[in-house]
User: Fold this.
Amino acid sequence: MSRDGSELIAGQSVAIEVPDGELLRSAAKVYLLPLAGLLAGPALVRWIGTGSESAALIAAVTGVVLGWVLARGWVRRSPPSFIVWHERGANGQ
Assistant:
């Protein structure tokens, strides 16, 4: 359904508007949590004192996966907002 309340049909031209900052907020949610997990995992392993490279690698992969799961849940709970505009043709339809 478009912003003006009219029903949309398949094949109809529409314009989608994303409010200022919404795209940046959504991208930050999706990319920053896995990146933080990638960096925090090996740092935690080093801080604990198990200095093997394989432990750091496993911690990095685990951090990325955990960050991705958290980011996915966060975006699903609060999806980005957008507005659909119905583009009217030359004959007003």
